[in-house]
Model the fold of this input.
Amino acid sequence: MSDLLSRKLGAPGFAAEIYVKELTQSTVGGHDLLQHRQKIQALSEETNQYLKKNVYQNYMQFIETAKEISYLESEMYQLSHLLTEQRSLIVTLLENSLLGDKAPGLRGVEKPETKAKFNAEIAVNLNVNNQEGRKRLTALLEKVEGCASVVESLTRILIHEGDMVELDPSDNCAIGRVRGFLLNDSFMIASWLPNKRGNMRYQYQALYELEGLAVINIRDLGPVKYAFKLMMFPDTRVLQCANSSDKKEWLEAFDLAKHFKIKKEVSPTLSAETKDNSYDESFNPFAEDESFSGFQNGSESSQEVAESIPDWVVEVADDMDVYVAQRDFEEAVSLAEKTRDFWDGASPSLINLHRDLKLKIDSRIRQLSEVLMNELRVSPDKSLQGGPRAASRAVLLLSRLGQASQACDLFLKHRSALLKHNLRQLKTEGATTLYIKRITSLFFPFVADTGREISRVFPKNKVCASAFVVWSRNEVGKFGNNFRKHVFTSGSTLTTVAECVALVRSHSEQLIEIGLDLTFYLENELRGQVERCLRDAREKLMESIKLRALEDKWRPVNLVNKSGIARFADDMSEIGIASIHSWVYDECWVALTSNTINFSKAYLTFLDDALKMPSADSNIFVDDILLDIFQAQLKHVENSFRSGKYKGEAKFISRNASFLLHTVLALAQLRVSEVRLHPCPSFAKLRSEFEWLAYDSQKITTTIKSPVSDQSFI
Done:
C-alpha cells in the first residue's frame, strides 16, 4: 500500500487538489481520512529519513566537489589576472623605447581633451615624489578610523577618492554607503560612521592590492546603473557611482594606476639593462674621484646582494592565496609562522628595503585571520553542522597567528550558539522530571567539555580562562531561567521540584572536575523559588493539621484483616518506619489514630523533599519550617491531653505522643544528620519540651481494648 501511495504521489502529473477531491469521494467518514493522513505522514517521515541517509552518504563527495569548484574558481581568476597583466605589460613595452620615442603602433594616437586632462591629473598624482598626494593620504588619519597601517608605507600616495553605494552581488540590493580611496598600489574601502566622532567620518573596511584586483565594467540593466565590479579572491564587491561621469573617472583611474604601476616595475629593469650594455666614453680609470666612485658603487651593489631575500618570501602572498582557496588553512598558518620568523630575524635595513612586500604579506595574514574568524562566526544563515571539531581547528590556527583573545571570544560565542541549538532539539513533552534530566545531562557535560577545550587550545592563558569563567556564569544564568520556567509552575508538586533540583545539583558537580565550581551561583539563582515552594508546602501542611485536628476523635484504627495490616506495614516501611508491628494488637487494630498516621506520612515525605533542595546557607530556614510543622502537631496532642473532653483517652493520647516523639521525630533527626553530617539542635529541644506527654506510654499497651463502636478506618 505504501509503494502504491508513493508512486501515486510521485507521479509527474500529480495534482494535490484532484487527489484530495477523489479521496473525499471514495472514503466514508472521518476515520478513513484520518488513517489516510497517517499513512501520508508516515510516508513523509520515511522520505525524510531516506533523504538524510543520502545526504550523509554523499557528504564527503559534497565537500570534495566544493573544494574542486573553489580551486577551479581561483585558477580561473588567476588566469584572468595573468592575462590582464600580460596585456598591460605589452602595452608598456610598446610605449617604452631605448631611444626615448614612442613605438610606431602608438604614434599619432590622441585622446579626447577631457580624458587627457583627467589622465594628466592622475599622472601627476602617481608621481611618488608628489608631496600633495602624500599629504592627502596622511590627512586620511583624521577622517578614516583604523587606517594607520595604510599610511605607514612611505611610497604610497592618494590618487583618487569618491563616494559610492555598495550593492549585494547576489540580488543587487543596496548594502550601504561607502567611500573609495584609490592609491598608487592599492584600493581602500571605508564605510560611513552613523555617529561622527570629531573629524572621524569613515570606518576602515578593507585594503586590496592592485596586483590582485580585477575591475569589471557592469552594463546598465534595470535599476543597476553606473556600477562596476571588483574581484579579488575570494571576495567580490559591486560598487555603484552617482552618475556615468563618476563611473568613467573611476574606471580610467584604475586603468592608469595599474598602467603606471606596471610601468614603474618595468622601467627600472630597462634602465638597468641599458646601463649595463652601454659604454661610457668619459670613464677615466686613472681619475681618483672616478675610481673612488666606482669603488663606492661596487660596495653598494654588494650590499644589495647581501640584503636580498629568498624567493619563497616573495611568493608568500600568492602561496597563501592558493592555500586559502584550497581551504588548506594549516599550511597557510605554517607559512605565516615561517614568514614571521624570517622577518623577526631580518635586519632593520632589509625590512626597510622590502617594506612594501612585508605590508603585502601582512595583508594576506590579516585576510587569513578574517577567513578563520568567519569559520567561527554564527549567523542565522550559517549552519552549525561543522561541529566542535571544525571550531577547535579554527581556534587553534587563530591562536598560532597571535589572535588568541579574538579566537577565544568567537569560540565561546560559537559554543553558545551550538548549546542553544542542542537544547532546542530536546522536546518538552512528557514529565517535567524527564525533561530536566535530559537538559541537565546535556548542559553540564557541554560546559565541562568547553572548559577542557579551552585548556587544551589556550594553555596557561589567564585571559581566556577568565573569559571562560564569565561565559560559564552567563550560560548557567540562562540555564537557571529555563529551569525556573519549566519547574516552578503552579502545577508542579514539591516532590517534582525536589527531584529536579537534586538532579541539577548532582550534575553541576561535574564542573568541579575541571576546576570550576558554580554550585553556589546556581543555588543562588534558584534559592528564591525554592524557598517560595517550601513556604507554600508549609502552609498546606499547617492547614491540613488544623483540619485533621478538628475531626480527630482519638480512636484506634481498625484494618479489618491481616491483609490490611500487611498493606499498612508496607506503606509505613516506604517512609522509613519498619517496626510498626509493635503498634498492632488484636491482629487488625493499630494503637494510633488516623491523624497521627497521615501526619507521619506527610511529614516524612516533606522532610525528604526539603533535604534535597536547600544549600548550607538555607539550613536555618528549613529547620524553622520543619520545627513549626511538627510543633503544630504536638500542640494538637497537648491541647487534647489537657482538655477535659478526652479524659478517658489520656493514655491513648500519650501513646500517640510517644510514637511522634520517639519514632517519627527520631527518624527525622537521623535523616537530617545523614544529609548534613551533624544533628539538628532544634529537634532535640522540641523533644525535651514535649517529652512529658509520653511519660507512661509503655504501660498503655496491655490496657488498650478494642472499642465496640465508633471505629476508625484508615
Summary: The chain has 25 helices and eleven strands.
